[in-house]
Write a structure and sequence with these properties.
alpha+beta; 12 strands; 380 residues; 4-stranded antiparallel β-sheet; 2 domains; Alpha-Beta Plaits; Ribosomal Protein S5, domain 2
């Protein structure tokens, strides 16, 4: 009997904060934290997933339509991925998967996308002759999360996990995004990538996250468009008085961030292409400042005593002492921040962060070249 070992990495957003839902540009990378599955086939027509630390999940392949009561569950993701493959003609069979993960839930490293890519690679390899490429598997993950799980996410998370390495993604056509893998040797820069857990909880922040695309939608409506990517920036600035009246100042500031952030992503891509890591770091700093000042996804509205993300950024800047760079990471408001730390000060930086925020709150990561994959198969 054969068993198969599959894996999919977590991802980190490198630049392009909240640009994907406006059909913008992002830089992202897969990291050396991954979700792994040990898979064996069964003849029962069901997919069973036993994730370490969670209740087991069972999905009957005879029923692949949306199950409303499964919303926000692992079963919904499994069912959605399986349904997408069935729609493409895959002849599905049952399997048992024992899943473990070093991708930290709620860390902004996207454990859900890694799981979707993992299931997608299992089905693609075992039941569809590997016909789908990494981009199509990422789209299937997004479909499962949007339609079955019930979360209106963009495609960046799944794309970075599926493709692997550092990638530039242009979402001008979200159904067919332009994906460019950047052959950049991050290890040679003399910097480490750190993800810092701020200790802030995502709970009760759904309205804050929803307000960003919601307010941008108000801006877009003034132009009869769906996304900022389709609105000429010059026309946007020419109509500022009207936009402020129609959508409010915060919506206008958030749109300014998106326009500027797209330019930053392009500039950072060019910097990486020519090996100018200093220019890239300047873009990281500028992205962080813009996210705080214009996008305003650092401090939730009305928060006074508890401003964990803002505090963590201030602490990181103090410890970096003008070197490296740090910024908000992912959706913002809670979760994690990102820091590029010179290797010669990594130990003192990590110790300084954990002395204040607590042991284990600073995670030192590497960018890995591997996306979702079959690692090996073996006789048991």
């Amino acid at each position: 009997m054969l068993q198969y070992i599959f894996s999919a990495p977590g991802r980190t957003e490198i630049s392009g904060n909240h640009t994907d839902h406006q059909h913008g540009c992002v830089l992202a990378a897969s990291v050396n934290l991954k979700t792994t599955a040990v898979v064996t086939l069964n003849d029962e027509g069901v997919i069973r997933v036993q994730s370490e630390g969670y209740a087991p999940v069972e999905v009957d392949l005879a029923r692949l339509d949306v199950v409303p009561e499964e919303a926000n569950s692992t079963a919904a993701l499994v069912r959605g991925v399986a349904a997408a493959f069935a729609q493409r003609g895959a002849q599905l069979k049952g399997f048992d998967a024992k899943v473990s993960s070093t991708v930290l839930p709620g860390s902004g490293l996207s454990s859900s996308a890694a799981f979707e890519v993992l299931i997608g690679n299992i089905i693609n390899t075992l039941f569809f002759e590997g016909k789908l490429d990494a981009v199509e598997i990422a789209k299937i993950g997004q479909y499962a999360e949007n339609v079955y799980f019930g979360k209106p996410c963009g495609l960046m998370d799944q794309m970075a996990s599926s493709v692997g390495g550092m990638v530039f993604i242009d979402f001008a056509d979200p159904q067919n995004p332009n994906v460019e893998r950047l052959d950049f040797d991050f290890a040679a820069t003399g910097h480490a990538l750190c993800i810092i857990d701020t200790g802030a909880d995502h709970a009760d922040l759904t309205d804050e996250y929803a307000a960003i695309p919601g307010e941008l939608k108000q801006i877009n409506a003034c132009f009869g468009r769906d996304v900022l990517r389709d609105i000429d920036e010059g026309e946007f600035y020419a109509r500022l008085p009207e936009l402020r009246r129609a959508a409010g100042d915060r919506a206008v500031l958030r749109a300014i961030h998106v326009y500027d952030e797209n330019r930053r992503v392009l500039a950072q891509r060019e910097a990486l292409r020519r090996g100018d890591f200093g220019a890239f770091l300047e873009g990281v700093k500028a992205s962080g400042i813009s996210s705080w000042r214009f996008l305003q996804n650092v401090i939730p509205a009305g928060y006074k005593a508890h401003q964990e993300v803002a505090f963590a950024l201030a602490l990181a800047e103090k410890l970096l002492a003008g070197r490296g760079a740090c910024r908000i990471h992912g959706g913002g408001f809670a979760g994690t921040i990102q820091a590029f730390v010179p290797v010669d000060m990594l130990d003192s930086f990590k110790a300084g962060v954990e002395a204040v925020l607590g042991e284990g709150m600073c995670h030192v990561l590497n960018i890995t070249p591997n996306g979702g994959m079959l690692e090996r198969e073996e006789e048991i």
